[in-house]
Write a structure and sequence with these properties.
The protein has one domain. Helix content is 47%, strand content 0%. The termini are far apart. This is DUF4327 domain-containing protein.
Length: 73
């Protein structure tokens, strides 16, 4: 029986955003709020998570991508 690893929602978000940046859909210098349009209904929850981690919607996407660990504290 394999143990299913739960991926932290912010890790999932970070991977999605990195993929968008790698595809040049968004730029690392774009503000985080620009990704809101790409996440639709999920955004309210993700936005609250980001705010809880101390991000502002004006922060550049590069700051989100720079996070190395999303610890629950």
């Amino acid at each position: 029986m394999s143990k299913q690893q739960v991926i932290h929602p912010m890790v999932k978000l970070q991977r999605n955003v990195r993929s968008l940046a790698d595809s040049n859909i968004i730029k690392p210098t774009d503000s985080i709020w620009k990704i809101a349009l790409l996440f639709g209904n999920e955004w309210q929850h993700l936005k609250q998570e980001l705010l809880d981690y101390g991000f502002s919607m004006q922060d550049p996407v590069s700051e989100l991508l720079a996070v190395e660990a999303w610890d629950e504290e």
